[in-house]
């Protein structure tokens, strides 16, 4: 029987709110205990008016229980339930022989109902209201004693008091028993859930340790293998360049070109994978060194001088520097070059013919003190990008499908790496494009002004040299120049 009531009242269901369970317990307990009291009153011959109040209380309790248990309207039925029960108690006060009858006991039980159903911040108001109501009823009884209904005999009076005590005991017993059962069920579920979470946490920690070990092993493997792969690749590229300077037949020249292009493509792919691994580990750092912006961009474009796609597609690379663009800057020139190379490579890949323009200009914006804003743009006449594909551009290992067939498809890392580098530099990359109208990739880079003043000096052999005095030779100067020191 107890198990049936526990399931019927959903006391073992942890998903049911505590307030809902309390409403179910109170309304069900009121219905059962009032029903027992009504049967006892009928047996001892209590006045029909009192019994009608009890029957009305049972009806209200049944309606409220149905709304709370099956409709989950426990919040809306609480005020109605308490107001109705309070009204019935006030009316039956005089039919129950006033303060000398069971009314005081019923008022105390009503106070218990309010304490269970009303939120704690409103309990004080409820008890004050109940005290005022009881005081008013006592004053009416004191000044109008003729309004009280008396019992037919002392036996009937004593039995009514006894029945009310029984009614109160049954109500409190049911309420406490159900509430205790709900607490025990919730506690068991909580303990079981806690144990399960602890086991899951231990398993997660073990899996995390395994993942960290695997990540460290992967990083070490990539670092070692990148070095091991780069060394022979550089040898292959260097040998191919040397062979290119010898006399070769047309077919040999074609084979050599394939070797050179494929090797460079593989070398770039290895570098991208290594950079992506560094990004995942948070180990991609920027360096600061002085450089000349025009020399950096010009030397970057020279990297594409022997690119076969340039000539086969009749593409032209243009560099436009605004007149007010600062020349001497300080920042990570290597990573800046890497971003420009990635964007230009992308432009070449998705353009069939026309001009690819690289622009650099000074940007007036709210920048950090002591820094200069340089706006970079790479504009291509390519196939363009659909609007719904724009968010996918900067995701690692993603490719945008187009109707154009390309001989080489990238790994989808260049733009993702470029965006990360730009974000590390304190900027953000943006793209504007439409199908058939080309694309424009732009990013703002905040750089410090260069501290070193570049000078031109003429040596005895008549060779012009350009480098900052008393500093190592910049990376972008030819080795023949760097080898001469004053």
Question: What does this protein look like?
Answer:
- Helix 5 runs antiparallel to helix 6 (about 120-145).
- By secondary structure, the chain is α+β, with helices and mostly antiparallel strands.
- The longest helix is centred in the middle third of the chain and has 91 residues, at about 155-245.
- About 60% of the residues lie in helices and about 10% in strands.
- It is rod-shaped, with a radius of gyration of 44 Å.
Number of alpha- plus pi-helical segments: 13
- The shape is rod-shaped
Query: Between the first and last Cα atoms, what is the distance in angstroms?
Result: 104 Å
Which H/E pattern describes the elements? Answer: HHHHHHHHEHHEEHEEHEEEEH
Average predicted local confidence, pLDDT = 78
- The count of DSSP E runs of length 2 or more, i.e. the number of strands, is 9
Q: Summarize the main sheet.
A: 7 strands, mixed
DSSP strand content: 5-15%
Number of domains: 3
Uncertain residue segments = 403-408, 453-486
Give me a quick take on this structure.
The protein has 486 residues and is α+β, with helices and mostly antiparallel strands. The protein is built from 13 helices and 9 strands. The protein has 3 domains: 198 residues, no CATH class; 164 residues, Histidine kinase-like ATPase, C-terminal domain (Heat Shock Protein 90, 2-Layer Sandwich); 35 residues, no CATH class.
């Amino acid at each position: 029987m107890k198990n049936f009531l526990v399931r019927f009242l959903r006391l073992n269901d942890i998903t049911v709110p505590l307030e809902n369970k309390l409403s179910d317990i109170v309304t069900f307990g009121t219905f059962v205990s009032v029903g027992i009291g009504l049967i006892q009153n009928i047996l001892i011959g209590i006045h029909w008016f009192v019994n009608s109040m009890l029957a009305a209380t049972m009806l209200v309790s049944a309606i409220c229980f149905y709304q709370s248990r099956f409709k989950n309207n426990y919040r809306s039925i609480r005020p109605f339930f308490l107001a109705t029960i309070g009204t019935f108690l006030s009316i039956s006060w005089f039919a129950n022989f006033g303060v000398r009858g069971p009314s005081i006991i019923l008022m105390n039980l009503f106070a218990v109902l309010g304490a269970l159903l009303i939120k704690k911040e409103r309990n004080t108001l409820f008890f004050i209201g109940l005290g005022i109501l009881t005081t008013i009823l006592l004053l009416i009884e004191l000044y109008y004693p003729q309004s009280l209904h008396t019992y037919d005999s002392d036996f009937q009076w004593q039995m009514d008091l006894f029945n009310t005590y029984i009614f109160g005991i049954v109500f409190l017993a049911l309420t406490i028993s159900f509430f205790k059962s709900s607490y025990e069920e919730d506690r068991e579920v909580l303990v079981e859930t806690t144990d399960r979470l602890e086991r899951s946490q231990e398993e997660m920690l073990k899996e995390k340790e395994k993942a960290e070990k695997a990540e460290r092993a992967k990083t070490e493997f990539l670092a070692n293998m990148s070095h091991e792969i780069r060394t022979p690749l550089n040898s292959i590229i260097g040998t191919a360049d040397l062979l290119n300077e010898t006399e070769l037949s047309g077919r040999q020249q074609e084979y050599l070109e394939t070797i050179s292009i494929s090797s460079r493509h593989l070398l770039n792919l290895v570098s991208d994978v290594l950079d992506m691994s560094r990004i995942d580990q948070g180990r991609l750092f920027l360096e600061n060194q002085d450089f000349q912006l025009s020399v950096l961009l010009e030397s970057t474009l020279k990297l594409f001088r022997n690119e076969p796609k340039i000539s086969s597609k009749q593409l032209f690379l243009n560099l436009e520097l605004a007149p007010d663009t600062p020349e001497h800057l300080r920042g990570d020139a290597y990573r800046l070059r890497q971003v420009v190379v990635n964007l230009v490579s992308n432009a070449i890949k998705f353009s069939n013919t026309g001009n690819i323009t690289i622009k650099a200009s000074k940007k007036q914006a709210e920048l950090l003190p002591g820094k200069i804003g340089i706006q970079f743009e790479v504009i291509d006449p390519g196939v363009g990008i659909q609007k719904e594909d724009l968010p996918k551009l900067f995701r690692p290992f993603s490719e945008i499908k187009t109707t154009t067939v390309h001989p080489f498809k990238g790994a989808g890392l260049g733009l993702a790496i470029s965006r990360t580098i730009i974000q590390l530099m304190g900027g953000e990359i943006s793209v504007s494009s439409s199908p058939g109208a080309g694309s424009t990739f732009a990013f703002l880079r905040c750089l410090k002004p260069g501290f070193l003043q570049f000078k031109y000096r003429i040596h005895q052999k008549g060779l012009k040299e350009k480098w900052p005095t008393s500093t190592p030779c910049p990376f972008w100067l030819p080795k023949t120049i760097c080898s001469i020191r004053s």
